[in-house]
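Progress report, Aim 2. The chain analyzed during this reporting quarter is listed below.
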Amino acid sequence: MSPSQPSLSGAGAPAIQVEDLRAGYDDVVVLEHISFSVRPGEVFFIIGGSGCGKSTLLRHLVGLSHPTAGTVEFFGAPFSNADVAGRRARLKTFGMLFQGGALWSSLTLRQNVALPLEEHTPLSRREIDEIATLKLAQVGLGGFEDYFPAEISGGMKKRVGLARALALDPEIVFFDEPSAGLDPVTSRNLDELVLRIRDMFGTTIVVVSHELASIFDIADRVIMLDRTEKGIIAEGRPRELADQSNDPRVTEFLRRGKGR
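Predicted structure tokens for the chain:
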């Protein structure tokens, strides 16, 4: 947690607690009766086929959309039904890596990483630049601070996005399809980086993905969503679900390949 932002963690509370969530857009219900928890320091995946509501659930978890029913809590503190001040305070304690990196093409890598620090801290320009440089080094991009996004590869852009997500030393980092568009080697390197971040800082990791290699390699637990059910049809360790589930929808999804 950044020195300028006190932790809001509740002792012994789940990192994330979702209770009876209903999510959708306008009058369309995409998900309902969604309940699960994520433990602190866990690598937790939200999986399922196309159109099952993975990204919709993620948007509701991070506050980009508001649930029509149910609650979301972080470390025991209300989020989905908190007041404006409470929601803003909580937003500063998690980071988000968007699918395409979402970098500003006109800014250098250091400037991209510095954006959350400029918005949410009273730090000086020198201090902000020092932290941005450190975060880039933590994701293996030391020496690339003055490059622009157009000058680096897709995998490097994901790393910059991760460095920016880590800028405020968040307690939780959310990933939206982090391996999308990456070759297998780059994808594996990103997975290993995610684990290093978790191990170094105790960060809770939540990943939306349908990539079996990543699911089997780094997920501690998963929930699987189903489009027809509009809800969770499986929860647990991915290999155990693949081997032991009696639901053909679960085994079909998880046995598409063998992972890495």
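The longest strand covers residues 28-38. The beta strands are 16-25, 28-38, 43-47, 69-74, 77-78, 94-97, 172-176, 204-208, 221-226, 231-236. These observations will guide the mutagenesis work planned for the next reporting period.
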